Amino acid sequence: xxxxxxxxxxxxxxxxxxxxxxxxxxxxxVQRQRKVLLKxxxxxxxxxxxxxxxxxxxxxxxxxxxxxIAQLQRQLRxxxxx
Length: 82
Hints:
Layout: H1 2-41, H2 44-52, H3 65-81
């Protein structure tokens, strides 16, 4: 009865606290990662544009550094081969 309810309530309360703590840690991690992106990309607009195409593999409006480097290396090889 009541004791069983109290045990279930305490267990749920503990789980809720753990989930809240985890969510807080994740929010802090996201903030740190956004700061790194901002430093890397330079502006908030560039950061937002990069994030907006992050889940779209077909997006050609924005290229990351690795893709830009690979493209430049291909162009350099092509120029050397001419």
